[in-house]
Amino acid sequence: MATKSVLVLKVGGALLQCEMGMARLMAAAAEMLAAGQQVILVHGGGCLVDEQLTANGKETVKLDGLRVTPEDQIPIIVGALAGTSNKILQAAAAKAGIVSVGMSLGDGNVVTAKIKDERLGLVGEVEPKDATYLNFILSQGWMPICSSIAISSQGEMLNVNADQAATALAKLVNGTLVLLSDVSGVLDGKGQLIHSLNKSEIEHLVAQGVIEKGMKVKVEAALEVAQWMGKPVQVASWRDAEQLKTLVKGGSVGTQIQP
């Protein structure tokens, strides 16, 4: 087993529409794995979900940055996330020479899941449960690629926000969490990168409306993990795979969310 903390990388749906971005990210991940760094990749797939919903004549509604998931949309959302999105990333991993295991939050008892808020429909809230399955995959030198679809004890298929899914897995393996999106980190009102944020600074920027919607969900998930683990969480960009290499060497990238 590697002595270094497991790196939990969360990637957004926009990555799936950028072949160059995926190739660069997987090349960086392959390098890390070769150096003995264990990596878990957690993904959303918002763009693919939207495409599939539109193709099926369904509407996308969001509430506070979270996708509302009516019952008639869940088969489409599950197919887009646990199916297409997951396999696109596995294919990119294979191309980079990585042995991966495609999985969802419903596998191996890794989390417990329940409905988050009735107003959101089949949107799940997850808590870390059992690391046995993930630890086995990691011990083989393989990379888990996990979609944000969970299953409740009542057998409901639930759509989980991918930042929150990555949060649960980072807690589970006591890993280092990096939330990667297509922006370089948290930006201030003038579009400049903020290098470090703590709880009160985040609350201030949320009150001002500088941090909102999807970034608000992301930053709050990052803060939760930072506080839980007593170490910073990074919010950075997959567009710059060099940022990842800096990270592997222990450097800081993007915005550091402080505990």
From TrEMBL:
Q: What Gene Ontology cellular-component terms does the record carry?
A: cytoplasm
InterPro entries the UniProt entry points to: AceGlu_kinase-like_sf, AcgluKinase_fam, ArgB, Asp/Glu/Uridylate_kinase
Named in its record, the pathway it takes part in is: Amino-acid biosynthesis; L-arginine biosynthesis; N(2)-acetyl-L-ornithine from L-glutamate: step 2/4
- Keywords, comma-separated and alphabetical: Amino-acid biosynthesis, Arginine biosynthesis, ATP-binding, Cytoplasm, Kinase, Nucleotide-binding, Transferase
Catalyses: N-acetyl-L-glutamate + ATP = N-acetyl-L-glutamyl 5-phosphate + ADP
- Name the job this protein performs: Catalyzes the ATP-dependent phosphorylation of N-acetyl-L-glutamate.
Give the similarity note. Answer: Belongs to the acetylglutamate kinase family. ArgB subfamily.
- According to UniProt, the name of this protein is Acetylglutamate kinase
The organism's lineage?
Bacteria, Pseudomonadati, Pseudomonadota, Gammaproteobacteria, Alteromonadales
